[in-house]
Write a structure and sequence with these properties.
By secondary structure, this protein is mostly helical. The chain is built from nine helices and no strands. The longest helix is centred in the first third of the chain and has 30 residues, at 17-46. The radius of gyration is 23 Å and the shape is elongated. The chain starts with 16 loop residues before the first helix and ends in a 9-residue tail after the last helix.
Length: 226
């Protein structure tokens, strides 16, 4: 999570360590609270549905994380770019303009996962982009910390999120795919009601798949009679 909006300085102009900590910790606190509230409301309305918690947590990691990335990216291309660079321990430069738009692009990919129709290859691409972008950011923050002793708050506190968020997104995407219904060639896909039901539709899809396979494997006798 290279993009950052948290800037807190003392009267002497030195950066406070609480700024980075509160920004990144706040992201995870809001994400978890939002997820549990969303899950509770969904469970009360629709009851227990297999794989639904995985789907909701994946959406919060990607969609809410995408909103956070967009806000951070806007900070890098706005008048706050100088303060952001100082708070990360970097020299302000026009490279922030490119970093800002890269964060915005990652955010747009994440927000797009909110639409069910875009949770196929779009979601996979969003997770891949997130993993490479934030994974690279984590390596950079670690290197500047160890090699250049960069202990600026937003350099140090970015490291846990840069590692945890893409790792969690990858795990949740794999689990979400496992719980989601799989289309079978030659067999009609889930009905509209099944799609609304989400991962629970897999049982109905599997039943139709077994029926179709049984029909294809049945061959007429040698005399042409069935």
């Amino acid at each position: 999570m290279s993009a950052d909006l948290a800037v807190t300085s003392s009267a002497q102009g030195s950066t406070s360590t609480t700024g980075g900590a509160s920004y990144f910790a706040g992201f995870w606190v809001i994400l978890l609270i939002g997820f549990f509230i969303h899950w509770a409301i969904d469970r009360r309305r629709h009851g227990h549905r297999r794989g639904r918690p995985v789907e909701l947590l994946f959406l919060w990691v990607m969609v809410f994380g995408g909103v956070y990335a967009i806000l951070g990216g806007l900070g890098h291309i706005s008048g706050a770019s100088h303060r952001l660079a100082v708070n990360i321990g970097y020299t302000p430069s026009m490279f922030q303009w490119e970093v800002g738009w890269a964060d915005i692009a990652i955010g747009v990919l994440g927000v797009g996962c909110a639409w069910r129709a875009m949770r196929g290859q779009w979601a996979t691409a969003a997770v891949v982009a997130l993993a490479f972008s934030y994974g690279g950011d984590a390596i950079g923050h670690i290197m500047t910390w160890n090699v250049h002793n960069n202990t600026a708050p937003d350099n140090v506190w970015a490291i846990p999120s840069d590692i945890l968020q893409p790792a969690l997104a990858i795990i949740l995407l794999v689990l979400y795919r496992r719980f989601s219904p799989r289309p079978v060639p030659g067999i009609p896909g889930p009905r509209a009601g099944d799609q609304q039901a989400g991962p629970d539709a897999r049982e109905a899809q599997d039943a139709r798949s077994e029926q179709g396979e049984a029909q294809r494997s049945y061959q007429p006798g040698a005399d042409g009679r069935r």
